[in-house]
Design goal:
Blueprint: H1 3-9, E1 17-18, E2 25-26, E3 29-33, E4 44-48, H2 49-58, H3 61-66, H4 71-76, H5 78-87
Length: about 100
């Protein structure tokens, strides 16, 4: 692989991105399928790592596909609304997301 190809793949950690869910300015985002890919989804949004992990920790792919397939529906979900109130006060740092015993 050429040196030029290596540079083109390098991530720019100096830029900031906005999470579509919590709306925080963060250094890194993941692409999230609003309807999970396994359920036929194609539309994606940028989410910070904490929000992305939280969604997949709280909900099954089936629930995300059937009930929570828009940013607005996610924000209106009581557990996510409580999480968002907390995470919006956090700085851009590694946030530990615990796995839940039961998903909805």
């Amino acid at each position: 692989m050429s040196m030029m190809a290596d540079r083109s793949r390098a991530r720019d950690y100096t830029s900031t991105h906005r999470c579509a869910l919590c709306e925080r300015e963060v250094g890194r985002v993941n692409r999230h399928h609003l309807v999970p890919k396994s359920e036929g989804g194609t539309v994606m949004v940028d989410l910070c790592l904490a929000c992305h992990k939280t969604l997949h920790s709280f909900f099954t792919n089936q629930t995300l596909a059937k009930e929570l397939h828009t940013i607005e529906s996610l924000r209106q979900e009581p557990e996510i609304a409580q999480y968002l109130a907390w995470v919006r006060k956090q700085r851009d740092a590694a946030i530990r997301v615990r796995a839940r015993r039961s998903k909805r």
